[in-house]
Design brief:
about 60 residues, mainly alpha, about 0% strand, globular
């Protein structure tokens, strides 16, 4: 389900916190996280999440 415009970033931040908590649990070892994925679909989503985070970080690398 997509977020409504007025709370898109607020809700997404909560979801990203949840995802980073999962990464914390495996000490940021993506291979372990992928091995424990509940499905191939979820593993693909994990890879996409990481790629999107890299894209955002690259776009804003010069921002404070």
């Amino acid at each position: 389900m997509s977020n409504m415009r007025y709370c898109r970033f607020e809700n997404t931040c909560k979801d990203i916190d949840d995802c980073t908590d999962a990464l914390d649990e495996v000490f940021w070892d993506v291979d372990v996280l992928l091995e424990t994925a509940s499905s191939e679909y979820e593993a693909r989503a994990m890879k996409r999440f990481i790629a999107l985070c890299k894209r955002v970080a690259n776009e804003f690398e010069d921002e404070e």
